[in-house]
């Protein structure tokens, strides 16, 4: 029975991954600095699994507390979610992002190395592809940073690659997420953004629940089938399961591996609105406004490498994502409060 430390485990993707880890028979230890999440998500996971999950409020910049976790637990690997993730905020506060995301990860890797824990799954992002030339996007596509948040993700990928090159006893999985949405079917855990949502789906669910008046669609003059931006929306449970498969892959000592975690299907903003309205029999008022600076027109995955090498595929469709997102929101109109 392997014991896995999940950094950022009270967050949206973290909590869903903790649930799938426990359901898959792993022992899990969660750490989070709670800067952008609440322990309530973990209490819900305990309710769903019937298992107690050790939690420690630890910041990656607190090396002493971080070190103590590796002394107190006999860890076999780490899934590393902890990090700031708001694109707009990263433009306003780049040093905050570099310090928290990059220095925090360097601290984590130093302490992992000290304790001989050298299996890490890293939460990267499709944002490293910038405004992609080709879609669907393979892992071999050119990478670039288009904002400080994306630069932290790309820099950490390079740090982990060079760490592996310096010491081949490491096993590293870089997982490039496309657009995670939805919630566990119970509606007990879900996406609970701080303040007004930046991302499309939580904005839609807050319009649907009456918390926000209407959706602004950022641009309708892109070269897409309906002029609005196209993304690869992936159900958060499919994404969580991808992490289990990545951990299993690391147990085969692959060295460093990189995978796109997406469905391979592109959906426009208007497609999402239509799917949400159909799935939930609800109207989403919206208005078309100017493009959001920095947005790519089209970004969706070629997930064939993960399909083959991880024996994994995202199989929940957009209707299911919309239904589960709405189920979470209606059961938790104010999130975890
Ligand atoms: C999706 C589409 C918008 C909001 C970002 C990060 C990525 C990851 C996910 C952190 C785009 C449109 C959005 C709205 C809209 N972040 N939109 N009105 O920008 O693809 O990815 O979030 O983990 O790393 O880059 O996601 O949900 O913000 O936008 O029209 O109110 O919805 O223009 O086409 P994005 P998003």
Quick rundown:
The protein contains eleven helices and 14 strands. It has helices spanning 12-23, 40-49, 63-72, 87-92, 94-114, 148-166, 200-208, 236-250, 269-280, 304-309, 318-331, and strands spanning 3-7, 27-32, 55-57, 77-80, 119-125, 171-177, 179-181, 215-218, 230-231, 233-235, 256-261, 267-268, 286-289, 298-299.
What does this entry look like structurally?
With 337 residues, the protein is α/β, with parallel strands linked by helices. It has a domain at 3-183 and 234-262: Rossmann fold. The chain is built from eleven helices and 14 strands. The protein has helices at 12-23, 40-49, 63-72, 87-92, 94-114, 148-166, 200-208, 236-250, 269-280, 304-309, 318-331; strands spanning 3-7, 27-32, 55-57, 77-80, 119-125, 171-177, 179-181, 215-218, 230-231, 233-235, 256-261, 267-268, 286-289, 298-299. The strands form four sheets. Strands 3-2-1-4-5-6-11 form a seven-stranded parallel β-sheet, with helices on both faces. A three-stranded mixed β-sheet has the order 12-9-14. It has a two-stranded parallel sheet with strand order 7-10. Helix 5 runs parallel beside helix 6 (148-166), helix 7 crosses helix 11 (318-331) and helix 9 (269-280) crosses helix 11 (318-331). The longest helix has 21 residues, at 94-114. The radius of gyration is 19 Å and the shape is globular. The relative contact order is 0.15. The model has no long low-confidence stretch (mean pLDDT 97). UDP-4-deoxy-4-formamido-beta-L-arabinopyranose binds next to helix 7 and strand 8.
């Amino acid at each position: 029975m392997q014991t896995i430390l999940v950094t950022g485990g009270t967050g949206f993707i973290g909590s869903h991954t903790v649930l799938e880890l426990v359901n898959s028979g792993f022992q899990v230890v969660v750490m989070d600095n709670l800067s952008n999440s609440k322990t309530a998500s973990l209490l819900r996971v305990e309710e769903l699994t019937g298992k107690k999950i050790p939690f420690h409020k630890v910041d990656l910049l607190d090396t002493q507390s971080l070190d103590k976790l590796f002394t107190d637990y006999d860890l076999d690997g780490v899934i590393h979610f902890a990090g700031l993730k708001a694109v707009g905020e990263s433009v306003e506060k780049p040093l905050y992002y570099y310090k928290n995301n990059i220095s925090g990860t360097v601290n984590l890797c130093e302490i992992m190395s000290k304790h001989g824990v050298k299996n890490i799954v890293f939460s990267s992002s499709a944002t490293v592809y910038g405004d992609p030339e080709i879609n669907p996007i393979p892992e071999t596509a050119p990478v670039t940073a288009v904002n400080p948040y994306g630069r932290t993700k790309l820099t950490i990928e390079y740090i982990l690659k060079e760490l592996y090159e310096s010491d081949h006893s490491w096993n590293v999985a870089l997982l490039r997420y496309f657009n995670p949405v939805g919630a566990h079917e119970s509606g007990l855990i879900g996406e609970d953004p701080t303040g007004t949502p930046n991302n499309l789906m939580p904005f839609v669910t807050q319009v649907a629940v009456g918390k926000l008046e209407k959706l602004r669609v950022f641009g309708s003059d892109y070269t897409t089938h309906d002029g609005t931006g196209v993304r690869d929306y992936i159900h958060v449970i499919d994404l969580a399961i991808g992490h289990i498969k990545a951990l299993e892959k690391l147990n085969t000592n692959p060295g460093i591996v990189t995978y796109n975690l997406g469905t391979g299907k592109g959906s426009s903003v208007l497609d999402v609105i239509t799917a949400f309205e159909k799935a939930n029999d609800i109207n989403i008022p919206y208005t078309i406004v100017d493009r959001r600076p920095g947005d790519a027109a089209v970004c969706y995955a070629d997930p064939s490498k993960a399909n083959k090498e991880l024996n994994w595929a995202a199989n929940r469709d957009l209707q299911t994502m919309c239904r589960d997102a709405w189920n979470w929101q209606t059961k938790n109109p104010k999130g975890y409060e």
